[in-house]
Specification:
200 residues; alpha/beta; Maf protein; seven-stranded mixed β-sheet; 7 helices; 7 strands
Length: 200
């Protein structure tokens, strides 16, 4: 069965390589902003899973009649019940990171697997604890926002890059915070018969 990752994220591509060496990448042609707006009022912990399903279905629809498994993903940063998107500019990035500092937030990564005969989805949630907002943290935020790293990421940080300096710790799956819960996804792909038993 051919595997397609419905994501343009280089981070997800790198993590997917930990599970399988051969897969294709196709981005989903959906209006993510409009879809997010339509999900207003939905449990924030479920929004990323709904977006992952929409992405996977959009790509799967292009391959009707083919033996493919399409994997869709979406990651949300949630603070006090509110979803933080990607920052529009430097000021918004600084504001987001300042709000996260001294607090624990949830990173929810939704994953959907769509095949011709089945649809499976799940959400992996992890807690991320940011350092307190002292002068050192403020300086780190300012320097980090001078880089290009925060601007394509939910919550304005990448834990695998410079954003790591802002983080005190995590409870949960590090790889899910990066954007792909590799262990849980590998298990789901195995259970669906998409990847073989590693003992064979």
């Amino acid at each position: 069965m051919r595997i397609i990752l419905a994501s343009a994220s280089p981070r997800r591509k790198e993590l997917m390589n930990l599970i399988v060496s051969e897969f294709d990448i196709e981005t989903a042609d959906i209006d993510e902003r409009a879809l997010e707006d339509s999900l207003a009022g939905t449990d924030p912990l479920k929004v990323s899973e709904q977006l992952a399903l929409a992405k996977a279905h959009a790509v799967a629809d292009l391959h009707k009649g083919e033996d493919v498994a399409v994997i869709g993903c979406d990651t949300s940063v949630i603070l006090d019940g509110e979803i933080m998107g990607k920052p529009a500019d430097r000021d918004e990035a600084v504001k987001m990171l300042t709000a996260l500092s001294g607090n624990t937030h949830i990173v929810a990564t939704g994953v959907a697997i769509v095949t011709p005969s089945s649809v499976k989805s799940f959400t992996e949630c992890s807690d991320v604890i940011f350092n307190p907002l002292d002068d050192y943290q403020k300086g780190l935020i300012e320097r980090y926002c001078d880089s290009s790293d925060p601007y394509d990421k939910a919550g304005a940080y990448g834990i695998q890059n410079g954003g790591a300096l802002l983080v005190q710790g995590i409870r949960g799956c590090f790889f899910s915070v990066v954007g792909l819960p590799v262990s849980r996804l590998a298990q789901a792909l195995y259970e669906a018969g998409i990847i073989p038993d590693q003992n064979q």
